[in-house]
Amino acid sequence: MNSDSIISIENLTVNLMTTRGIVCAVRGVDLEIRKGEIHGLVGESGCGKTMTAKSILRLHEENRTLYGGRIMLKKSDGAEVNILDIKKKELQSIRGREVAMIFQDPMASLNPLLTIGDQIGEMLKAHTELSSEKIGAKTLALLDMVGIKPAEERSRQYPFEFSGGMAQRIMIAMALSCDPQLLIADEATTALDVTTQAQILDLMKDLQRRIGMSILLITHNFGVVAEICDRTSVMYAGKIVETSSVQELFDAPHHPYTKALINSIPRSGRSGERLVTIPGAPPSLLQPIKGCAFAPRCQYAMEKCCQEPKMRMVKRGHGYACYLNDDREEAEHDG
Amino acid sequence: MGRYILKRILQIIPIFFVVSIIIFGIVRMSPTDPVTVILGGKKATEAAIAAVKIKFHFDQPIVIQYLLWMKGIFTGDFGISYKYQQAVSGMIAGRLLITLGLIAISSFFGIVIAIPAGVLCAVKKNTAADRVISVVAVILVSCPVFLTSILMIMLMSHINGAIFTGTYTNLAEFFQRLSVPSLALSFSMIALVARVSRTSMIKELKSNYVETARAKGLSSQRIILHHAFKNAIIPVITVASIQIGAMIVGAVLVENVFALPGLGSLLISGINTSDYPIVQSIMLLLVGAFLLINLLVDILYAVIDPRIRYE
Amino acid sequence: MKMKQKNLGHFFTVSMVISLILLTVIILASVFAAYVAPYEQAAIDMSKTFQAPSAAHWLGTDNVGRDILSRLIYGARVTLLSALVVVVISVIIGVPLGLISGYYGGKVDNIIMRVEDVILAFPALLLAFLFVASFGKSITNAIVALGIVYVPMISRLTRSLTLTERNKAYVEAAQSIGFSDTRILFRHILPNCVSTIITQMTLDIGYAILDLAALSFLGMGVQPPISDWGAMLEEGRAFIQISPLLCLAPGISIIVTVVLLNMLSDNIQMYLDQSQRKLPSFKKLRKMAGGLIEQ
Question: What is the ipTM of this complex?
Answer without folding.
Answer: 0.86
